[in-house]
Amino acid sequence: MESIVVFCGSSEGNDPEIVDCAYQLGATFAAEGITLVYGAAKIGIMGRVAQGALDYKGKVIGVIPDFLKLKEVFHSGLTKLIITENMHQRKLRMHELSDGIITLPGGFGTMEELFEMITWAQLGLHQKPIGLLNINGFYDELLAMLRTMVNKGFLKQEYYDILLVDNSIDGLLHKMKNYEPLPLPIWIKKDQL
């Protein structure tokens, strides 16, 4: 994987371990030569991931819609800044620039980004590894809810297994590098991809 998009919060929350891990993820990307693609903010968990990569001479591409440039206080020291017209174009561009997806803690926006990427994978629109970094058990309840979806017959086990989960950066990157995607659904035609 040459580049990974990271979805995460524009606030830091109140758990210092999450903040530290976000910075370390960026530093790890730099050490491994992985380009960070993210939402371009210099604040919150987003800013910590970017700063970790930049402090260790990593390549960082920020993608932000024009209307959020002031609200999310974009990072001015990025390798490259891409400005889009809207949120949908932002996600699409981030997806196009990445070989994999990692989600860190965040709020509604982070959840929306994660679930859109999982849905696209379920539909066969991409076969990229999707990782969830479960720092300090942040996503334990979400994972329990997903398990309930499987148990109640609303989510197939094979789609549940699309989401790669680990508590450590190294463990998650190992799973992502060794990910074997599901075969494309037979009802999807090549011209629809």
From TrEMBL:
GO CC, any one term: cytosol
Q: Name any one GO molecular function.
A: AMP nucleosidase activity
| SUPFAM superfamilies per the UniProt record, alphabetical | MCP/YpsA-like (SSF102405)
Q: Does the keyword ATP-binding apply?
A: no
Which stretch is the leader sequence? Answer: none
Please provide the Gene Ontology terms (biological process) for this protein.
cytokinin biosynthetic process
Protein's UniProt name: Cytokinin riboside 5'-monophosphate phosphoribohydrolase
Can you name the source organism? Arenibacter troitsensis
